[in-house]
Structure formats: C-alpha cells, structure tokens
Write a structure and sequence with these properties.
alpha+beta
Amino acid sequence: MIKRKMLLSQMRFRLLLLLLVLLLLLNSCTPFVAAQRHDVAQAAALLEPAALAVAQPSTVVAAYEQAFAYRQAKPTPTPVAPFTDDPFVAAQVAAMLPAYVTDLEQAAAWERYTIVAALSPDQQRVRGTVQILVTNRTAQPHPRLVFHLYPNHPDFGGRLDVTSATINGVPVASGTAYDDSLFWLELAQPLLPGATVDVDMSFVARTPRNASARTFGAFNQEAGLWSMANFYPILARQRAEGGWDERPIESRGDFVVSSTALYDVTIDVPVDWTLVTTGVVVAREAVNPGVRRERFVSGPQREFYLGATRGLAQVSGDVAGTRIISHYQPAHAAAGKRALQVAEQALRIFNARFGQYPLAELEVIEGAMTTFLGMEYPGVVLIDQQLYARNARGLETTVAHEIAHQWWYSLVGNDAQGEAWLDEGMASYAQILYYEGIGAFDIALSELEGFRDMYRQVRERGRDVPLATPPSELRGIYVPIVYGKGALFFHALRAEIGEAAFARFLQNYYAFGRYRDLVGDDLLRVAEEACACDLAPLYRDWVLTAAPVL
C-alpha cells in the first residue's frame, strides 16, 4: 500500500536532488550511482508526465528473458489429469502458470473457501454463502473457530453480517468483539490438532457509495468501480503455538492478516457490470436476460478480492505467460495504457529479481481511493484516479510498488499488523529496483533520497524506533519508519553483503517464503545463508534497536 504522505515527502526534495548528486555519487555503493549522469535538462525531463522510462533493461532482466524464452521453446511435460482425485484442487490449475501447477501439491496445507454470492449494485449489497474447510494446524485443540469481519471496522464505513452458521451441518452459537470485526463460532467439541470441520455461513455485506474521502476507498462504490474488498468472513490466522490471532484491527497500515488458501467463487452480477477479481474466470453463463453468472478460481492466495466496474475501458498484455489487464476511466486512456506498460515492465523486472510470478492473471484498476495512492490485493492492485489524471511519475512509482506487493505480502506473507516493514519495506525498495531495471538510475537515486529524507526527519525529531515496532505504536511516524527506514534497511543489507549475495537473498527469500507466513528472523536467516556471513549486528541496529544507522 502507498500512502499519500510518502509521495509528497519525496516530491519536496526533488529540487534538492541535483545539489546532492555529487556527494551521493562519492558515498553510495550501489550500482545505479555509478551510471553516467544526465544533465540538468534531462533530469528535469524525467519528472514530466511523458517521462515513462522505456530504457535498456538491466543485464539480470535480459538474462531472465533469455532463459524464459529457452524454457518456452522446450516442451514442458504436463501431468496427465492432475489432481483427478480432488476436483476442488483440479479446478485451481486454471489459475496457475503451467510450470507452477505442481505448487498445488501443497493444497493440504491450505484452507478451502467456496463462495456463492449475488451482487445488487443499486443497494451496494452482496448476499451470499461461504463454505470453509477448516483444519486445526496448531499443536493445541481449538475450543472455537475465529474469523475477521473486516467491513465492520469503523474505517470501512460499511457492514458485514453473518446471518446463519453451521459446523458439520449443525447450528452453533456465535459471538463478536471489537465492533463486531471479530467473530467466532463455538465448537461442541474442541477441534483437535490435524482435525478438519466443514463451516457454512450465510452473509450480507454492504458498502458505502461515494465515500472514499471519509472511509476506506477499497470498500466503496464510486467513479465506475464498486470495490468490495474483504466482503466475506475471513478465517483468522492460526498461531503455531496454539490459538488464533484475535488482536483488534489497527487502522495504521494494512488491515488483513491471513494465511494462504484456495478459493472457488461463483458470482451473479447484472449484465451491465464487469467483474474484476483475484484469479481467473473458468465458467460464464446467463442466469436471465439481466443477470450473468461467473465462476472464478484463485490458485493459492491470501484473500479473494471482488470488484465490479461499469463504464471503464481496458487494455491487456502478456508477460511470461501472465495476462495483465489495465482498467481505466475512458478520459484517462493515455494513463491507463501507461499503467499497463509500467505493470509489464515491473513484472519482467521482478520476475528476474525475485523469481517468477506463478499465477496466470494480474489486474490494475483505476478507482477513487482518495485517502491513499494504491492498495494491493492478490492478483489485483487498486490505483487512485488522481494519479491517472496527472499521468506523471507518481503513477509509475505507485504501480511498480503495488506490483511488488504481489511477491511481498501476497505470495510471501507476513504479519502486516505486527511486522509491516517486512512487506512495505521490501515493496518500497522494489521501487528502486524497478527504476534500476529500466535504466532510470537518476530516478532510482531520487527514490532512495526520498526515503532517506523521510527517515532523517524522524531521527532529527528524536522519534526513531526499531523496525520491529508494531504499527499500533507508530502514531505519526508509520510512513517514515515502515516505508522509509524499511526501504533503507534493504539498501544497507545490499551494501553490506554485495550484489551477488543480495541477488541470491532476493531469490532465496521468495523461494523459501512462497505461500508461507514469515517473520523477521526468517529474513535474517535467509540473508545470512545468502552471504555466508554474520548479519546479527546489522539486524540488531536496524530492526531490534534504534541505533544510529545513517
């Protein structure tokens, strides 16, 4: 997620950038500062609306593209009738790139959601049912099952009500806490470790309309987009030591903390609305002249995003087998096409840097977010309409940041309510990697200076804290710590271990963490393995303490 304050802070220092260039060239140890500098006129031109840099890609991207072309030229053996003993999992194959279908062999480790819902746009209402197969994945019995009803958090400005619930077909008692945002079902008998139950719930969700200036824009109907993020009950994350994550939802940062699951979702929608969701559509039929029914499968994802558009245009492309679709307001056609181009470039660069995105589809949607610039969901990113209206560097940076979240948050999970720096810091540093990847080294340097400035201001005010500080304790400093200091940590790590080890770290961290929930200690361990060195002092100074680091 990109907050508006972060971009504004960076913009204030663009005028100082040229004065700092010489000093930075002498003191920074990253490869982009060794590139040939542009003159003043060229540097200024980079910030103009038409400055989308379609520069020469880095050697690592070129090597990846060559290797991908070689793999595509070779016949890839496809399993014969994969997962025929499990139709639910077999259907998920459609959401995966062919080379990653075997990831579904891990399906036993993930919960399964089957959602059937009908949309009533005029009432901003979603009415449906959800079936969840829940397995106790902890070492202790569960006396109850716990879910998050995110739309009941005051920031959403809407409502999600569970109207009935059964476990294994038997009605059960329920309860709520924290303004009904936490919901639980009582079990007649404790659910033992490794045991599974079938949970069925009926629900009704209602979003506000034209409310993005005062509530969470991703749960709202406005400007041609009806965004219904978190419209269904989401199982709380299970703690390895036992129990559930029952913390109240903190407004600072991202709301959702959830584990990887598989989704099979069927939606009835009026024919004049276009569905935009996580995953891919696998079936489509008419219910009656005014209603269309579509079925989607997600592949392994942390949540299922549901949106519907009316009056938006779209353009699409393909990168390494992943279809990318850009949805935009017709008045912003140039920016909508530019958003697609940025998404394509970002996917190529991050495929090379991190490891390939394993899913078949990715969508970028213009919407009225208003209080934030961008928001990530599995397979979907939302970008504020004001960035499209300006069609300048902010659009490019925000799209690249949110695409990076498809790796850092969606595929590699972490506790966004406890260790937000893990995904936001990495996605913020990915902005630098993106601009490096397209050869826009001046802009990469500018991004780095923006993060340094953000963080310096916090230090100068005596408000520096460890990166490990949870968002609930970051009042007034969430953005400069989580985004600014978080990005700078990865820059310091890169300087400490060198380019080759940093490249190994990025690839290994993604490979190790894909579909898992990681913590800071996991990152440290992977980084130390990548460099065969001791990084405890670096980690202590940046993550565990507020030692002077700049």
